[in-house]
Amino acid sequence: VRQCAAELGHTPKHHEVLGSTYISERFGNWAVALTIAELPLPRGMKPPKQTALNAYLKQRNRADAAMTKEG
Hints:
Layout: H1 2-8, H2 20-27, H3 30-36, H4 50-70
Helix pairs in contact: 2-3
């Protein structure tokens, strides 16, 4: 997402990124993906709810913990 933003010169909207549906599913929604990527939200997009951010961070922490146990 950051690379697309750099190429476009602005924060990309969902339809401007190849694979955006997968990215949205991975992060919970597009606003969470942009927030985690530390990109400003496009005009008119509501910021993600804290519960959505927390859900992603909890999932990421579980994955990190699993990788630590395996490695």
